[in-house]
Amino acid sequence: QVQLVESGGGLVQAGGSLRLSCAASGSISSINNMAWYRQAPGKQRELVALISGGGRTTYADSVKGRFTISRDNAKNTVFLQMNSLKPEDTSAYYCNADVWSVGRLMNYWGNGTLVTVSS
Which of 32, 65, 108, 112 could cross-link to 92 by cystine, CB 3.0-4.6 Å? Predict the structure, then answer.
């Protein structure tokens, strides 16, 4: 079994920064894409940023230039550095990963971490 555990959320003022982490654990052979999604109350879950196994990154237009996704393959961990935060970034942030485990490629989600940006 594989688990994704997020950390680093919290309350920050507009213009501030936060760094989210997500560590994958369990029977892991390798991890392909790792990503961060977010979901605000009453809204659909949306992709924030994605990083491939080879390090290629993709960002939502709303966060380009402010957020940076990175990963540490040795620690099966993905990070999201969030700068110049805005009140509209307030959401629950979820980690997502495509993991090879016991010969199968499966998609996993973390339980989420809450980010609140005050104006």
Answer: 112
